[in-house]
What we know:
five-stranded antiparallel beta sheet, alpha+beta, 6 helices, globular, 23% helix
Amino acid sequence: MAAARVVEAIGGWRVRGGGGPAVAAGRVEALGERGGLVRSAGPLLADSDAAGLQVVEAQYGGLLESTASVLVVCRQWFADVRGPVVAAGATVDVRLASDLPRWQVTALHPGIPPAPARPVSRLAKAVLAERRIDLPPAARADVSSGHIHGSVLTAMLRLSHTYRLGVSVLRSGHPRYVFGTDRVSEHTLGRAFDTWQIDGHPVVDPSTSPGLVTGYLLAVARAGAHNVGGPYPMPSGTAQFFTDPTHHDHVHAGFAG
């Protein structure tokens, strides 16, 4: 909640000049957080009269005893008194430290959406056009950029034949390293995707059927993933599955190539 509130405070305003760093810093300080965080807000700030920001999803990028990464997935709109509304969006890696009685935001690392490839591949176009694959702005930009491996794109298309996928994160905005380690993340290599919602049901929602989630985990493995993480332990002898506190709110699908 702390991570999402800071991102919302920086990226949404309704008054002329509200997007400037000084004004945004005031909104952040009103939350009890450091105003200096706005210096690394990057694409969340713009010189426009108004902006709207919607948090699509906030999921863990890593969770340790006293530190955490929360990936805040956003859609954003910028508008001036005169001129069209411009749609945008980013995924922000928000770092936090445990500071009783609550977690405190320590840093922001917004992903910078990459430019589209010239041309966009047929496989990428198929993923972008598939209505059963919901991609937030940063993930759409990743697919268009050509930086996502074909195994990931093929798996998402295959899974969409059975499920409606709410994809949260591909590459942009994800920590470069597996949180708390020096291992480069599969996301950084363009060989992973995270699913936060299956058939309209959030993975983290207690009312979501465990059978739906475990069935999806198995389907992800059949689609070629060699590394599958989620909220539930899977049968013994299935080495590619894992579960930990970081993955209680989404399904990770990683691919070897």
